[in-house]
Every structure is written in C-alpha cells, then in structure tokens.
Amino acid sequence: MKFAILFKYLLLCVAILGALGAVAALLGFAYYRLHPVFGGQPDEASLARIRASKAYDGAQFTNLEPTPLFTGDEQPSVFMALLKFVKPTPHKNPAQPLPTVPLNLSQLKNGSIAWLGHSSVLFQMGDLVFLTDPVFHNASPLPLTGRPFAMTHAPAVAGLPAIDAVLISHDHYDHLDYRAIQEIDSRTKRFFVPLGVKAHLQRWGVASRKITELDWHEQVHLGQTAIIFVPARHFSGRTLRRNTTLWGGYVIKSPGMSLYFSADSGYGKHFLDIISKYAPFDFVMIENGAYNSKWALIHETPEQAAQAARDVKAMKVMPIHWGKFDLSDHPWKEPIERFLRAAQLHSLDVATPRIGQVFQMGQPLPKEKWWESVQ
Fold this sequence. Notes:
375 residues, alpha/beta, 7-stranded mixed sheet, 8 helices, 24% helix, globular
C-alpha cells in the first residue's frame, strides 16, 4: 500500500516537472520569437543587395580565407557557450570596480577620442562626432547575463553628445546593443551598418532614412569625410543561424586625419593585403581580447593584434575589445599585458586610457597602467 502511494507521488512529481518543462520551453520559444533583441528580417531591397554581394555565396556571407568557427579538438556546445554567461569562471574578473572617469564633453574636439570600454569608441574628426559599436547594457540576449564589469563611472548614453554617425561593425550582442540603439536614436543623425543589419535597427524603431547599409570596400561620404567599410575575419548572428549579415571594420578619412577601427577579426591576410593600402593612419583601434584556442581564427591573440597593427602600418594604436565583459577564459588583465609586451617588439606607440578618458590622438598618448591597481 505504501509503495503504491509512493509510486503515485513519483508519477505526480514527474507530471509536474514535465508540465513545468513544457511551460518553460513555451516561454523560451515565445521570448525567442517575439522579443526585439533578436533583431529583424531584411526587406526586399536589403535582400537584393545581400544577394549581389561578392562576399555572399548564395546561402551565407563568407570570409576571404577559410575560417571554421571552432578550432581545436574540443568543439564547445551551444549549451556550454550559453552557460558561460550564466555562470562565469570565478577568480579571473575584477573583484572591485574599475577606476574609470566621467566622460568630459568639454574636452571633445577635433582629433580627440575616448574609449568607452570594449569596442565602443567616441571620437571627433573636424566637426563630426563618431561612435563605434555602442554597448552600454549587456552583451547577451538575456537581460540578467553578460553584464559589464563594475566601474566607478560607467559610461552611459545619457552622457553622450549629439552624434553625427554611429558605426556598427557586426550584429553580435557585445557590439550591437538594442537598448543602446533605441536610447541614442534621437541624438544620432546617421547609422552605418553592414549588409543585413539594417533590419535589426528598423525593428528597434530607427527610421530607414537614417540607416546606410555597406558592403566590403563600399565608401560613403559625410561632407569631406570618407567612411569605408573594410573586410574582417569573423562571423555574425544574433540567433543560432549564422552569417546572414556581414561583418567588417571601418576606415575613416578626413582631409586632415585617417583612422582605422578593426572591430572583431581573427588574424589574416586582409590586414596586409587590403587595410594597409589605406595607410598611413594617424590612429588605429585594434581588437585585443576574448581570444581562445577553441576559436583561434575569429579572434586574434594579443601578439597577433600587435602584428596586425604592424601590418596596417600603425604607429599610434589603442587596444580595444578588453576590460569590460567576461567573454573568454583568460584573466581580464591578460590582453593588455601581453599586447604591451608584443607592441615593444614592433615599436608601436600604445594608448592605455582609462575608460571614459578623453585625449588627443595627435599629442602624447596616455600611458597609465591603471589596471595594475585593480584586484
């Protein structure tokens, strides 16, 4: 008799767990299908441009050289990749707020620049103000995951000036923050995005007339300033479907200044074969962080980043893509420490500003090793 009661109780528990699982699955599916964070689908005009791109093979965008997403013997599962955002590795991230500084807009003028953490960079060329890959909330589609490290003065959209052009490199969550896009829309004149990414911004409420989609090597002008979208070695995707949108970096040239923003890229021949043709550069922003042997071809190591800076004939360079999010297995300080050692071998002049610090690209660069004081 007791066994029968226990058996019925177990069956009830299984039924309840099954029902809860079904509800959770249904809610997850609804979130995936309905939440705007996942972006939109290209309209016919965008699809026509995608199909006409030399980087599109008829099914997806491809890199200039073979680039498997995962490398090494162990192929990480999607579940393990998502688990990383929910359960970060302990003892490798800062245990105290990073010593950042408030963004001082009175210092923003022609030739000035401010790193806002990761790949978000604010700079001014002539009268034009640019912002790259604005991410201010989280690097994940889930609201409580992928949060930035704590900072003494965290950059926020409210502290930004009016922006002439936002440059988006690709649609990954640590480079395209839908909440930030909605917040900066009213203060931004133009958005420049890779092919396919326009649909995301349209779904988030940005007017189509403000968005310009670019293919590799395509060039547009704002007044006398040229904006050129250039190749990178990476991938794209905000869902499990990859490479339906393009990825790349930007060369920005005005009559008195030339900059290169690499965005995300594994090391490859494009630095020397393509980007160097736009040299000389007054300033280079090079990716340096979130590398791992499991994805060695889509992110470069600090040593490869220094070599890439050398390949594009950089003299003044600022490492980006580090110091804000936990996106790989390396300690958070490691990218900058390794980059500085490698940069010495290439005689690179390296800027190491605090997040939020405004400085002049044409003057002596900030050299403070501020991370050394952080536990």
